[in-house]
Amino acid sequence: MTTKDALVSRETLRYLTERFSLESVKQVVYDKTNSDDYYGKFQDLVNENVIINNDFEDSRWTFHTTKAGNKATILFDLEVYKKLNLSLKCFALQKVLSGISITETQSQIHSLKEAIIQSQGFDKKKVEVLQEYIATLGYRKQSKISYAIIEFLKFNPLSNSEIYTEMSVQFAKSKRQARELPPFQDVLMFDDLFTRFFSDCTEEEELKYSLIYLWWRLTKVIPMRPVELYGLTKDCIQYEKDAYWLVFPREKQPPRTYEEIEVTDKLQINRDLYDVISNYIKMTEPYLNVGKPDILLSYDVYREFTDCHGTRLTKERIIDSVRFHKTIKNFYTEVIEGRYGYEVNDRLTAGDTRHFAFCNMMLQGYNMLSIARIGGHKTLRMQMHYHAHLEHFAESAVQILAKSYMKNKKGFAQLSLNKEIIIRAKVFSRGDYKNLFEVDYGYCTDHPSRCKVGDCRLCEHYYFSPENKEEGLLWLKDFSQALKTRISEQIQFMLTISNSMEYSLKTLEYPIHKQEQLSGSANELKRLMDQKASVDSILLGEYENESK
Q: How far are the Cα atoms of 50, 388, 488, 496, 521 from residue 528, in angstroms, in the given order?
């Protein structure tokens, strides 16, 4: 019998022929009111010498696994979660009685106990915590724990079964790599169109998508879980001792093992983010009606502009994952695609920005301990899977910076066939410059003898204007590729420094000289990214001119 049949009961109604029969097939669902049935099943296995124990209530069950006398033990020791502990026993019995091996059942119970502990009994607010924990595991363990959760919650339906099952499905189908983020072109596009929209939208549009504005501005910088964003209160921002602070709805629990870290629920922020939250409160306060008055994210604004009073009032009158998903879906449909005509296959989700924030902190030179405390990770290893996204994030940051340089820097130019220099749609002739010195694939408006840069491709006085455009573009591309390689090497070097630090999880201290080395490496990374953005801005400008 296969695993998928383990929680199915079959009853033969009648035989049609010698080989075929009519069966009744039912999904086995745990019912605590019928727990006496499982006591009976337990005794049946005792009588068959499968289970050595004589008492269902024992926390340690020992099984005979072979006729040769080999044994296996399953521990049911979740005393804090007694109801789940009982249902685990019944789940194990059902598996064994259905023909599933003792060792496989033992493995599933172990996985489920991990999931229950990490999620604090499948608490609705701990979905992201369990999700992050599973993400730190290897491919096989991810698949194993996810399938166990899905099957157990099918056997024992809980109030939060749906959201935990939905989360588990993505890992049950996962491959041997970290989850892919949306393509950096789509991230760049979103950031650009986001800025354009909120710079010229109407007051009604600003209110309608104020949730998206707050989410994007906050969570791409601060690694908040979506559930932490939804739980922010209006008094989450504070001004104390000439500093601005953000308080998270995060439980500060003392470490339970030597590997665990005491996370922080308070983070210093800049004036800009303080104002973003303060302005959101002022803008949404007049609409307060049926939503929770102390919660930051306005349920009433959502109901007024997105839901349009279309659904009945629910018990939890707050912004949750369902309402956020509906809002960002509308933003893509009405704004990104509808207004600006940009079709997107891989849309951003609420949790993607947490990845961006972690990556941003890593590239800025934050060490692993600081990142874990700010991000709410209980162990250092929980941030390891974000390392796979660092180069993707760095590339996205370079492209955003390159596009900014292309729009604003004076140095972009192209020499046309009639020997005129075109800069940002304004035409300059040679007579506009006192001196114009020919250099590699272009011109310099300053005397080369005063050059402090050393490479024309990185100089603000350089104008790309090759006689052989194909050669000139190859010259730029080669340098851009070389910088990409150096950026990748620098990121790996920074990870090596951060991973090798001797952190004290008890005192929350780390070697200052190592942090200084990490900070210096981050500055070097920033310099390399800035250089690549400068070169790529010329390439972007050339491709844009060709498309006109």
A: 65, 20, 10, 18, 11
pLDDT band at residue 200, thresholds of 50, 70 and 90?
very high
Closest CA to 350 of 168, 211, 166: 211
Of the chain, the end-to-end C-alpha distance in Å amounts to 65
3-state DSSP helix/strand/coil % of the chain, to nearest 5: 55, 10, 35
Arithmetic mean of pLDDT, 16-38 = 65
d(CA 291, CA 275): 23
Task: Encode pLDDT of 414-451 as tens digits.
Answer: 222 223 333 322 333 445 556 677 888 877 877 777 77
Distance CA 537, CA 226 (A): 34
Task: Give Cα 395 to chain centroid, integer Å.
Answer: 17
The SS3 of residue 305 is: helix
Q: Would you state the structure tokens that stand for residue 130, as one six-digit string?
A: 């369990």
278 pairs with which residues across the strands?
none
Neighbours of 539 (CB within 10 A): 16
Residues 371, 494 contacting (CB under 8 angstroms): no
